[in-house]
Amino acid sequence: MDYQAVLDEVAAQVKPQIGRGRVAQYIPALASVDADRFGIALADVDGHVTGVGDWERPFSVQSISKAFSLALVLADDGEKLWRRVGREPSGNPFNSLVQLEYENGIPRNPFINAGALVVTDRLQTLTGDASTTMLDFLRAESGNPDLAFDQEVAVSESAHGDRNAAVAHFMASYGNLHNPVPTVLEHYFWQCSIEMSCRDLALAGGFLARHGLRADGSRLLSQSEAKRVNAVMLTCGTYDAAGDFAYRVGLPGKSGVGGGIVAVVPGRCTLCVWSPGLDARGNSVAGVAALDHFTTLTGWSVF
Amino acid sequence: MDYQAVLDEVAAQVKPQIGRGRVAQYIPALASVDADRFGIALADVDGHVTGVGDWERPFSVQSISKAFSLALVLADDGEKLWRRVGREPSGNPFNSLVQLEYENGIPRNPFINAGALVVTDRLQTLTGDASTTMLDFLRAESGNPDLAFDQEVAVSESAHGDRNAAVAHFMASYGNLHNPVPTVLEHYFWQCSIEMSCRDLALAGGFLARHGLRADGSRLLSQSEAKRVNAVMLTCGTYDAAGDFAYRVGLPGKSGVGGGIVAVVPGRCTLCVWSPGLDARGNSVAGVAALDHFTTLTGWSVF
Amino acid sequence: MDYQAVLDEVAAQVKPQIGRGRVAQYIPALASVDADRFGIALADVDGHVTGVGDWERPFSVQSISKAFSLALVLADDGEKLWRRVGREPSGNPFNSLVQLEYENGIPRNPFINAGALVVTDRLQTLTGDASTTMLDFLRAESGNPDLAFDQEVAVSESAHGDRNAAVAHFMASYGNLHNPVPTVLEHYFWQCSIEMSCRDLALAGGFLARHGLRADGSRLLSQSEAKRVNAVMLTCGTYDAAGDFAYRVGLPGKSGVGGGIVAVVPGRCTLCVWSPGLDARGNSVAGVAALDHFTTLTGWSVF
Amino acid sequence: MDYQAVLDEVAAQVKPQIGRGRVAQYIPALASVDADRFGIALADVDGHVTGVGDWERPFSVQSISKAFSLALVLADDGEKLWRRVGREPSGNPFNSLVQLEYENGIPRNPFINAGALVVTDRLQTLTGDASTTMLDFLRAESGNPDLAFDQEVAVSESAHGDRNAAVAHFMASYGNLHNPVPTVLEHYFWQCSIEMSCRDLALAGGFLARHGLRADGSRLLSQSEAKRVNAVMLTCGTYDAAGDFAYRVGLPGKSGVGGGIVAVVPGRCTLCVWSPGLDARGNSVAGVAALDHFTTLTGWSVF
């Protein structure tokens, strides 16, 4: 398949959607991003990458980092993680805290903030430095040694972090955080602040399309584990719109409020799309539309 | 692939699980089923069917009927349905009523009871006889003209139906049921009471593997619609265990408290497994295990 | 104290509030009431009654009936009722169904609809005709043999009764209704439909000020029971505004969406005020203001 | 009335209840208290105080402090407080966080932890030292200059304070805390740690029986404000048992998990009872029973 032609076609079809939605406003560093940006990149399982638009321009990965921290913990720790975090969709967002209470401090899945805090806590215990561990991994997989944290974003997240602090203390009250709450929050915010381009992310997520093999051919996850990360991405990866995303796109995906979405066609390729305007549920409007066009054009929905 | 050999192997592996869990107790007709039953059938896209164990023995389809009523309404009515029912997973079951209240009487998805009542209401409006319409469809697709309602089950469900009546009246208070509540409940209970074997159900669900084509080659759903029903099955088809089912099995599936599960390998085949012992979330213990073995043996998870 | 002068003063002070708020709209018979009505009556413990404004004009008692059904069941059945209904305030209304679910079908108190349905169910079991029993009681206590049900209101409530039907079926699913759901709903709606004036209600509620003695001097409730009904009125009698009512008025009270409020000064008198405009929580705007003025003028708050 | 004789009689009647329930376990300093303690004190409006049993033995006031911080803020700030905290009962405890979310960070009332944190935050803003302000007030009213914080308790509360930290950060995310979260938590924990005897507390709460007048005759609260604090105590003062407390005791009261309860007979006297064994809702078993006997013996329920 001529990937470049497909991406060009996707970019042409999605044009009317670019700029729609609302750029994340809760911290200045995100609010100042140009709403009209759009990029998409595709990396095949052999590591060839191509793209369109702003596909080489870095943006804030935000919650996309949750997919990588999950993979890193599963790689090191296996199934034990599931004693501390579930893998069920979380229903509507307003329930987050009552669900934590109802389920004794066990988050529903690793992709809601509560679950990602548990994953980060575990990665911190396993490595002693959760955020640097992730940055090193992303540099290696993307082949981009210049990847870095965005300090302004990290500090700003922390300053606006009362809700995450509330969730973290709440889980700590159930004994489900093992490191000090401020330590966990700090590594969590630094992970979210990493800046990457569509190109970087499509390459970094390559192991999910290669059934667990890293860029250098070594194994990060078993075939079964890699499929399972994809399953969690499909059922829980796009906030409270996972059902809609499965319905429209039909691929495992993980989105972030920076406007990026990573999506996986198992055995074929990893995509990353970016456009900052978000819908009411926090997913990129043009990004979802682009992936919808992509699976329609290629027929590569998993269904 | 030698399907018969695969199913034999699955049946051998699953043996220790048969009889585990708890047979549904809320109505006598279900409670009296022998817990040690186990059957599995596979129908390929050409309509060849094979099976193992109790695969030709009828059981109560219960919630598996929800997949068929959804398909029948989408076939007739298209996307309009989604104004009255969502397609997001519902989170934990205890939230069902508060979610309905929070979301103004719009159920989260067509596979929770609330959503299936809306689908049945719509099918009733479209056809004038929702339960007979479904029975006729199932007879045609399975090639089994003897399929029938189990009157004892239907009457018994109705007699124990206060919780469904509560949900139905609650939605009616938001104007989201158009037929009289007792009519909707009656057709809903009759649909659930249909008796079918694994063989019947694997054949009847064939259109989901054939991207929308019925047994006679005519089109029920467009390719895109068929994929979308599969997407809803994967994200919402197994009660509050959809994430776990995606993680372990990795196929679209729909379960019922009669102990049956229908699962789809898009483009290849439809399976139906049956064993009455249920886990805490209402899914067949041996059934889920059998499908887990099946995808491990074949590598046919969608991920 | 010159009650007539006090009521005149209250009526003068409350004038700017009359007509404020919103007349109940959910059934036509209530929606057509003139918003500018206002009446207040005071019956002392000797049965002398005086009033101002529209104090002799009948209106729909609605939820005020809940105080009488509670008293009738306690009189006959004593403390046993509390096994089936609690006596704690219910928090915000949006929780009603989730609370019922969390607390296994036991309503929080007898003055939310769920609790009143349980009380009506018990009264039906005890008497065979809950609504007529209440009507007879109210006729006797008010000395007004012409009191009657308003059939138009009762039928209309029933036609708009899906939410109450949902609550009733939900409790039935927990075994907390003993009569058929339609029977309980019917008697509940008929009780709510009774038409009474402020004069009638102030007299009918006299036993609450007389520590349990009826108008004819016979005992309905023990002194202790009467105090306890007052306690439940104070903590739960005005929907989700009981705290505010206690804060501003400081008397046990029971309101209805017809715009009436009965309030009790233990040992001294019973008041009834009526004005149809309701605040956002369903209590009469001018009614609450009038009682606030009354306790400020007299110093007769229980605190 | 011979108060000493009444208290002796109460103490005799309550004997079988002493030692029942469970001493608070969440911090060692509370868990080590002798479960068999019981004391009760009564201070009349003239400041004469009498008592029985362990009435002069200090214990940890815990949530009883919430009544004093509320009074101190109302005295200084008047009705403005109610923009930041409600005065409605909170329903069952499991809803605390979802209610905060549903109501945009406004706690239901000043006696749940969330509300008391807001009150402490305001007192801190008004005085610059919320906990010392309260200690000085309690010393003056009780006439006991030796009252002190229990440092072990305060430090221990802080070390086990993740749930309160969660609530505080959650409100901060809505802008409803104006001082830094750690500052507010610290003053809150120190207030709770104050040690007082029944004698001290009965005297310190005298202004509530004297309609707002302090021990030295100066006015802390207006008559109307004092009544209103009593109203909030009656509807919200005993956790999720306020309805039951009103039903059985019929007096405004505020309890703490140290086993103390302060209750007010407006215009007559203030009582304090102490016994460390708590019921499932956190109120002293023998304490509630003693107050129940007291109002039965004296007839001094407000109802």
Question: How are the elements arranged and paired?
Answer:
Four copies of one chain form a homotetramer.
Chain A: H1 3-14, H2 28-31, E1 39-44, E2 49-53, E3 59-60, H3 65-77, H4 96-102, H5 113-127, H6 130-142, H7 151-159, H8 162-173, H9 181-192, E4 195-196, H10 198-204, H11 206-209, H12 223-236, H13 242-248, E5 253-255, E6 260-265, E7 269-274, H14 285-298
Helix pairs in contact in A: 1-14, 3-5, 3-12, 5-9, 6-9, 6-10, 7-9, 8-9
Brief digest:
The structure is a homotetramer of 303-residue chains. The first copy, chain A, has helices at 3-14, 28-31, 65-77, 96-102, 113-127, 130-142, 151-159, 162-173, 181-192, 198-204, 206-209, 223-236, 242-248, 285-298, and strands at residues 39-44, 49-53, 59-60, 195-196, 253-255, 260-265, 269-274. Chain A is α+β, with helices and mostly antiparallel strands and 303 residues long.
Characteristics:
homotetramer, Beta-lactamase, 5-stranded antiparallel sheet, alpha+beta, about 300 residues
> Can you count the helices of chain A?
14
Strand content of chain A: 5-15%
Walk across the major sheet of chain A and give the strand order. Answer: 2-1-7-6-5
- Indicate the radius of gyration of chain A in whole angstroms: 18 Å
Structural class label of chain A: alpha+beta
Can you tell me the CATH topology of chain A?
Beta-lactamase
CATH architecture label name of chain A = 3-Layer(aba) Sandwich
Q: How can the largest sheet of chain A be summarized?
A: 5 strands, antiparallel
Hey, which two chains have the biggest interface? A-B, 38 and 38 residues
Instruction: Give the strand tally of chain A.
Output: 7
Amino-to-carboxy terminus distance of chain A = 20 Å
CATH class categorisation of chain A: Alpha Beta
Q: Mind telling me the CATH superfamily name of chain A? A: DD-peptidase/beta-lactamase superfamily
Which word captures the global form of chain A?
globular
- Domain count of chain A, please report it: 1
Runs of chain A with pLDDT <50, length 5+?
Answer: none
Approximately how much helix is present in the residues of chain A?
40-55%
- Chain oligomer state: homotetramer
Mean pLDDT value of chain A: 95
